[in-house]
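In response to reviewer comment 3 from the previous cycle, which asked for concrete evidence that the modeling workflow produces usable outputs, we include below a single protein chain processed end to end. The sequence was submitted unchanged, and the resulting structure tokens are shown without manual editing.
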Amino acid sequence: MDHDTNSTRALAAMAYTNAKPAPELQKLDYFVGEWLTEGTIAPGSWGSGGPFSWTENTKWMSGNFFLVGHWDFKMPSELGGPGEEIFVSGYDTRRNVYTFDAFSSLGLHQISEGSINGDTWTWTSSAAYGAQTVQQRMTMKILSSTSYILKFEISEDAKTWKTFMEGKAVKK
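The workflow returned the following structure tokens.
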């Protein structure tokens, strides 16, 4: 190994050793704990809709750079029925956005970017539905330290939005 490679590795190790969680991560602390979310899926091209729910358990990964969570969900059978999902959320200081990566037992991988304005979180992403790619938007309005309402919308053109589901989350 040459000197330059060793120097690069030493610098990288120092950068990680001295890394501190970004102050923006403190806002994600709101979601730590156990939550119950219940709501309704609207009828649409995806089916007749109906009730949905999920239980969530979220905690900080050691180091406090990322939140790690687990959902057990119940959806209408035409949307996959019951299942589970794991997710990791953090903050990307280079792009100044919150991040959210989720993996479900239905084989879905969701990558979202988020922002917060006052008491409202907005998460955006895109997803493939068959041959079509749609835009997705989740808004979460904080009502109190133990509850928030959510609305998940989809758009084929990023201009006209259709409500997919709405609900309320309550901390246990």
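The beta strands are 33-41, 50-60, 67-74, 83-92, 97-104, 109-117, 120-129, 132-144, 147-155, 162-171. We consider this sufficient to address the reviewer's concern, and the full set will be provided in the supplementary archive.
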